[in-house]
Each structure stands twice: as C-alpha cells, then as structure tokens.
User: Fold Essential protein Yae1 N-terminal domain-containing protein from Drosophila yakuba.
Amino acid sequence: MMTSPSRDINDLFDEIVLTEEKEARLGYEEGLKDGQEQGNEEGYKLGYAQGVSLGEELGKILGQVVAQQQLKHTDKVRRSLEQLRSLIEEFPRTNDPQADIIGAVQDIRSSHRRLRALLGSKKTPGAAPPETNSVDHKDYSF
Assistant:
C-alpha cells in the first residue's frame, strides 16, 4: 500500500487562515467597489441638481442685469451692473477643483443685493406683488 506524503498539520492550518484572509480581502474589495459606485452615482445626482438650480439663479440675475443695462442709470448703478455682470461671466464653467465656487456665488449674491438696494428694489425675486387696500383702489369695471 502506497501512502501519500502526509502534510504537516501546521501547513493545513496556515492554508485555512490564508484562505480566510483571501476571502475577507476579496469581500472587502468588492464591497468597496460597490460602495464607491453607489456613492459616485448619488454624488453625481446631487451635484447635477444643485448645479441646475444654481445655473437658473445665475441666469435670472444675469437677465435682470442685461435688462437694466439697457436703461439709463447713474454712474454708480452702471458700475454696479458692470461689476455684477463681470462676476457672473467669470463664474467657473468647468470642473476645476481649485475654483472657489462657494466664494464666487457669495460674491454674486452680495453684489446683487447691493444693486437691488441701489435701484430701490427691496422685493425678492419671485415674491408676490403687495396687496392693495380695497379702500384706496376702486374697481370701475362693469
């Protein structure tokens, strides 16, 4: 009878431990990959939604600036309009990790508030028109 060479019990235990470590490493790598993919997708969706909202806001402000630039204003108001338009036109349009997007948005919003104050427009964009008192306003319709 031929016997196969016997393996040392320590080698068997080492093989079991190494197999467990290998499986744990593979499970970790697979979980990490899946988590990154899910996180990237969620991050993309959030970033896209925030970008669209910010683009709409800046577009509305730019539209107001361009419209106001067609009218006659004092030098101070004209300079403020030019400054605000410049800030919007210089706003980053590419994915530059070095760009200070939050700072740029804060500057644009501050400049817009100052301009509205100069123009005497205290109402916020999208606000409902003030209600008129029915005593002061008579309805002459039939």
